[in-house]
Amino acid sequence: MLARIEGLEDLSLTTNGYLLERDADALAEAGIRRMNVSIDSLQRDRFFEMTRRDALPQVLRGLEAVGRRPELGPVKVNAVAMRGFTEREALPFAEFARENDFHVRFIEYMPLDADHGWTPDQVLTGDELRAIIHAVHPLEECPREPSATARNFRFAEPPRPGRSRRGTIGFINPVSEPFCSDCNRIRLTADGRLRTCLFSLHETDLRAPLRGGAADDELEQIIRDAVWRKELKHQVGEKGFRRPARSMSAIGG
Ligand code: SF4
């Protein structure tokens, strides 16, 4: 079981939530301690429009199942922010966070879509969304932790009468407010390739040396060499930007 690996400090799962109703208990027992669930709309028809699946009720039941397992930690709900779509989702998501004590995070749309349809004018910035929410539910910024991807806000209003729940709202603004300067993230894809940035144009193959019987110290050296070459920043919006060949879903969501 992954959770038993010595030295492992955190184990989280990012999911579309389709199978959480069935699997939340098993995931808790397997040692998962944080859960990120991607939901781009809280309206059934608009959820279908985005995902091509009529699965919102199923995903919400999955969140309820997660809520019954407190060891799965505070639930984070991730919504991609797209101009012309997400403006109408901002307040429902804020209510959703407050009602359920969820941490809802809006993520600016990035050029990692499978359809290669991204254009800069489709990016709805975190500042714009924050203004929509703040006008109705005033927000207060929480201190930023080192290497955090999100700017997090709490609701200034007290919890509703008889409720202790508050929820928080986060804004991940990689396009309008890049946070690359203290990025400490790398990712390993399902096919054994190490990526040192979401926008990496190069990947480091770990599967071949692993299957070839490389010793731990050889693998460590390969990983260290890759990390030394980690990108300083992404170049989205700059002249000469090249999008990576593989989309977000192909590199692990
Ligand atoms: S360096 Fe790459 S992975 Fe890190 S924050 Fe910037 S774009 Fe994201």
Concise synopsis of the structure shown:
The protein is α/β, with parallel strands linked by helices and 253 residues long.
Form type = globular
Which series of helices and strands comes N to C?
Answer: EHEHHEHEHEEEEEEHH
CATH superfamily of the largest domain: Aldolase class I
| CATH arch. level architecture of the largest domain | Alpha-Beta Barrel
Ions, cofactors and other bound molecules:
iron/sulfur cluster
Domain tally: 2
Q: From the helix content, strand content and strand pairing, which structural class follows?
A: alpha/beta
Q: Unreliable segments (pLDDT under 50, ≥5 consecutive)?
A: none
Q: What does it look like?
A:
- This protein is of the alpha/beta class.
- The protein folds into 2 domains: 2-181, Aldolase class I (TIM Barrel), CATH 3.20.20; 182-251, no CATH class.
- The protein contains 7 helices and 10 strands.
- It has helices at 20-29, 44-51, 56-67, 90-100, 126-136, 207-211, 216-228, and strands at 12-15, 34-38, 75-81, 103-108, 139-141, 151-155, 168-172, 187-188, 193-195, 204-205.
- Residues 174, 178-180, 183, 185, 197-199, 231, 233-234 line the site of iron/sulfur cluster.
